[in-house]
Amino acid sequence: xxxxxxxxxxxxxxxxxxxxxxxxxxxxxxxxxxxxxxxxxxxxxxxxxxxxxxxxxxxxxxxxxxxxxxxxxxxxxxxxxxxxxxxxxxxxxxxxxxxxxxxxxxxxxxxxxxxxxxxxxxxxxxxxxxxxxxxxxxxxxxxxxxxxxxxxxxxxxxxxxxxxxxxxxxxxxxxxxxxxxxxxxxxxxxxxxxxxxxxxxxxxxxxxxxxxxxxxxxxxxxxxxxxxxxxxxxxxxxxxxxxxxxxxxxxxxxxxxxxxxxxxxxxxxxxxxxxxxxxxxxxxxxxxxxxxxxxxxxxxxxxxxxxxxxxxxxxxxxxxxxxxxxxxxxxxxxxxxxxxxxxxxxxxxxxxxxxxxxxxxxxxxxxxxxxxxxxxxxxxxxxxxxxxxxxxxxxxxxxxxxxxxxxxxxxxxxxxxxxxxxxxxxxxxxxxxxxxxxxxxxxxxxxxxxxxxxxxxxxxx
Length: 461
Ligand SMILES: *[C@@H]1O[C@H](CO)[C@@H](O)[C@H](O)[C@H]1NC(C)=O
Hints:
The protein has helices at 2-14, 29-60, 84-94, 112-124, 140-152, 165-174, 196-216, 252-271, 293-303, 325-338, 368-379, 404-410, 418-459; strands spanning 103-107, 127-132, 156-159, 179-182, 222-228, 275-280, 283-284, 306-311, 319-320, 323-324, 355-360, 366-367, 384-389. By secondary structure, it is an alpha/beta fold. It has a domain at 84-281 and 323-361 and 399-415: NAD(P)-binding Rossmann-like Domain (Rossmann fold, 3-Layer(aba) Sandwich). The longest helix is centred in the C-terminal third of the chain and has 42 residues, at 418-459. The structure holds 2-acetamido-2-deoxy-beta-D-glucopyranose (NAG). It is a multi-pass membrane protein. It catalyses: UDP-alpha-D-glucuronate = UDP-alpha-D-galacturonate.
């Protein structure tokens, strides 16, 4: 690097600040002119090539791999917030635009479910303010694209952490939110073995911090939040119903979500907060999470990489109750719409409040091998399958939701089968990653073009 820079620096030294001063130099005018003639185009060419190369590699580099303990340590020093301009944006984003609309704070708004819920609420005329810490658990570029999409729809996404009490209090000072849709969390079952503190930090400490601010708010908002089907853990009674045991989680992720359900009970009991927990069952679809199997299977099948399919003991089938994003969004909105008001105010309980928990699944578990077959058909590429015994790292053999409670109370009725949902996902995947690639080539080509124009221009000097 320094070797490359040194000649460039010496070239810079050789360029007079204004061409007119050239003749005042001590060296012979002929040599100076000769030097200028060679060095200026060369310098510019080199710097442009250098820049083009850097840009090219930055754009082509693959998304960063899951971070280590060190690099993913959450920082609360979020980008600057506050000030009259910022407050105006917050207020305007959260302003209700329809008759009896809600004013909702959506945490994890740049996440998969958060993005879809935010845009659907906004489309209905509800006021929506997003909050997201843009951590690097998976490709931040994807989160930024989701944010750009919902900001075009009028949802301001504040960059900040649910563990930051000053920021949360400020948001409630500026807006009297009627509801909080709490979707910010550390997701992923296997990653909990690499970075356990991240789960405690987001799913427990962050949740408590949020509830603390909500309970002190006046008025208190009603809260709907994302629990998980993983709380059923080693439950073998199918389908899973809300009344089943959830005290034998198989992963730290599940344990932190289960802890969240107990913490919700406490805040409901002591402070009169209205709280609804939603147990999501393997939500998938366009703009999904890259750490989920359907997503990285798609990527690997297209790349020709082998994919690993797990099987349970005695060649048992591993199956998931895949639930399409649009169905889940409807469930989330119905949960918000049917949530009763919190009863307390300013940290004091005034009466008993609503406390609910619902399964949001699809009621039809599909073997993971079937998922792969559907993807093969949609992508028109044969997968290189590797079948391995399932490791004991937190995954359960199957999930299957009993959704009759959500059906009765929320009118929840999932209507998308896996083929249809995956077709939509694949369509999105191909267009998203294809357009990213071509955007990259566009930049590269325009660099090439400006290089040509530049060198043509320089020939005229
Ligand atoms: C599903 O749950 C409901 C209670 O919400 C229960 O009455 C019903 O029997 C369950 N169905 C099955 C098939 O377990």
